[in-house]
Design a protein that fits this description.
With 208 residues, the chain is of the alpha+beta class. It has three helices and seven strands. A hairpin with a 4-residue loop joins strand 6 and strand 7.
Amino acid sequence: MQPTSNNSSEAARHRKKVITAIIAIVMLATPVVGTLILYATVSRQAKQVNTTCQAHMAILGRAFLAYAKDHNDTLPQASSWAQEIEPYVSDKKAYRCPNDLTEGFASYAMNDALSGQKLSALKDTSHLVLLYEVDKSGDAPHGNGEDIYKIGHDKGGEGRHGAEFYRFNYYLFADGQVMYPRVFKDVDQYVWNADGSKQTKAEAASAG
């Protein structure tokens, strides 16, 4: 009968070791699983915010084009663009980016160089910036890109959107497209003047 008792003891010790190992694995895995769930949740929320901002700028883009169609192919004045296109904006929430923590009516600024310009006279419209994300919202922000939202990090990129490895801003171009730079150097291809040149007025003045 003694061997039977020894076998039972060995089996009990084995079960105890297995249970202990399972508990240890669970304890180690729980923080990892929790972190992965949290990361997935935050990433999903960030993506939703980014998509919303992109959609808002697309709504404003359609409003700009509709305004120009009714005003002899002419864009509104930069100093009052938000108010001038308002009758054509289908959703008034479109003026705000969900990531904009500043107080003001609009989170985006109109490119001064396109103020009152005729759409048909513009060059390279697929790269010509019409609206950009400004660092401080207001009634009708406008400028030459010097006040673009620039908070970023040392791993590349700067802007309201993205993650730790890359930050970016959305841009509305004169042809109605809304895009963001897939890599940071893409911004070098963006055009700021109606004649298709990339140099802003501020850069031109500085160079002079």
